Amino acid sequence: MIAYLDTSAWVKIYIPEIGREELIQILKSVNNNFSHQITYVDFFAAIGKAMRIQMIDQKSAEEIVENFKNDWGDCNVMEVSQNMLEIGAAFALRYQLRGYDSLQLAAAHILSEAYEETITFVCFDKQLNQAAKKLGMRTL
Predict the structure, then answer these.
(1) pTM exceeding the 0.85 threshold for the entire prediction
(2) Burial, 140: exposed, middle or buried (Cβ in 10 Å; 0-12, 13-18, 19+)?
(3) Which of 33, 47, 116, 133 has the most CB atoms within 10 Å of its CB?
(4) In the CATH hierarchy, which fold is given to the domain comprising 2-139?
């Protein structure tokens, strides 16, 4: 199975939330996981927010960041291209998505066109998952 993980999926791997155990089990069956390079920055922003709202403390944040950096090294990271930006811009309008979400969807869409098998779009945003389904991707 090939999976594309957006930021919400990465966060759920490290922060105990509903559905975390199910996600971890699913990811064990993944042959290749992909993500976009913006996810790296967005992940740190999400961890910063978790600290700000006191969901996690400083020590937990440091452990999460260390584990994420190790796992990120095993991920196939997609880089931005002009084509991806144009597709993302079109998706932002068509599906009324936020900018980063549009770029995540564009990256997953490009990935799905490059592989013969169906890509599993791993995301925990309802609107973004609906858009991915319309594009023929499998979601959790």
Answers:
(1) yes
(2) middle
(3) 47
(4) Rossmann fold (3.40.50)
For residue 2, give the H/E element and its range. Answer: strand 2-5
Q: Which residues make Cβ contacts (< 8 Å) with residue 124, sequence separation at least 6? A: 8, 9, 12, 19
Backbone angles phi, psi at 33, to 5 degrees: -120, 145
CB 87 within 8 A of CB 106: yes
Query: Is the CB of residue 84 less than 8 Å from the CB of residue 110?
Result: yes
Q: pLDDT: is 123 or 19 the higher one? A: 123
pLDDT tens digits along 34-56? 999 999 999 999 999 999 999 99
For the stretch 83-129, pLDDT in tens is: 999 999 999 999 999 999 999 999 999 999 999 888 999 999 999 99
113-122 contacts, C-beta under 8 A, 24 or more apart:
115/2, 117/1, 117/2, 119/2, 119/3, 119/4, 120/1, 120/2, 120/3, 120/4, 120/26, 120/30, 121/3, 121/4, 121/6, 122/3, 122/4, 122/5, 122/6, 122/9, 122/23, 122/26, 122/27
